[in-house]
Amino acid sequence: KKVVAMSNIHKRYDGQQIETHALQGVSLEIMQGEFVAITGPSGCGKSTLLSIMGLMDSATEGEYHIADINTSNLKVDQRTQIRNEHIGYVFQSFNLIDNLTVFENIALPLEHRNVKKTQIKQRVEEVLTQVDMLHRQNYRPNQLSGGQQQRIAIARALVGKPDLILVDEPTGNLDSKNGDQVMLLLEQLNKAGSTIVMVTHDSRYSRCASRQIQLLDGQIVTEQNTMQQVQGV
Ligand code: ADP
Ligand code: ADP
Q1: Could you say which protein family the record assigns here (predicted)?
Q2: What is residue 230's predicted lDDT score, i.e. its pLDDT?
Q3: Counting atoms of ligand 2 from 1, which one is nearest the CA of 139?
């Protein structure tokens, strides 16, 4: 099953004097069960690509299908709904809500979907067990280490059973011990069936992925361990 299909994606940012052409014709497909790392130097377009994939931003040109849904010409609330249903997002800076407990942070996406309380409890405990943090469910994020907070953020991304988990520099704010733990967790989740796309500049970690996509100046330059054919432009 194809989770992501991007065709000739361009992204231009209008500046006051100059226009930045951040993505210059990116085409790629990602199949269910893949673990893809997107690498490349600062400014090459990694974050832009991830935010378009996550429907946080839209392309200037090109087509993007997620789970066979064409995302062109969607209204804002439709995009939000598709994002909530199909995508889990993990940020470098965790983005947890400090005045909610761990349990409440993870429950939030399900509450927005009007899931029943008993089902929410069951599912939150399930993902907390998966990230080995059930014993911290009543803590606040600021009572936890960075590595623990990132594991909570991963649990929140998982809770709605998304088709695609997008991860932006997950180890960027962590020391190497915590970084290794988070990467090990992502590998475990992928083995358990999650499709993951991760942006990282750390080559130690990109090697954990089953496929590496390297960007340079808004274009895909090389691919390693390729299981799917990806067209250049
Ligand atoms: P990376 O994540 O690889 O560092 P980005 O996707 O953040 O790269 O940025 C790609 C290019 O687009 C850069 O030149 C950056 O300055 C520019 N850019 C990113 N976001 C914006 C924005 N919101 N407005 C204007 N330019 C942007
Ligand atoms: P782990 O190995 O599970 O990531 P750590 O060894 O980093 O945990 O931390 C051990 C304990 O210390 C944690 O259970 C956490 O409650 C507490 N702790 C760690 N860092 C902080 C912090 N910055 N603020 C408050 N408590 C912390």
Answers
A1: Belongs to the ABC transporter superfamily. Macrolide exporter (TC 3.A.1.122) family.
A2: 45
A3: 16
Mean pLDDT of 30-41: 96
- For atom 6 of ligand 1, the residue with the nearest CA is 45
Amino acid letter for position 15: G
Dihedral sign, Cα of residue 196, residue 134, residue 122, residue 102: negative
pLDDT band, residue 224 (cuts 50/70/90): low
Confidence of residue 232 (pLDDT cuts 50, 70, 90): very low
Facing residues of 164 across strands? Answer: 87
Whose CA is closest to 44, among 11, 15, 14?
Answer: 11
Mean per-residue pLDDT for 141-146? 96
Q: Report d(CA 202, CA 167) in Å as an integer.
A: 13
Of 94, 145, 175, best ligand 2 pocket probe by most atoms within 8 Å of the beta carbon: 145
